[in-house]
Amino acid sequence: MKRLLYIFNWFYLFALSIWVAGMFLLGILVEVMVRVNLKDQPQTASKIMNGIMDVYNVHIVYTCIGLILAAEVVKFLVKRLGTG
Question: Which of 15, 20, 27, 65 has the greatest number of CB atoms lying within 10 Å of its CB?
Answer without folding.
Answer: 15
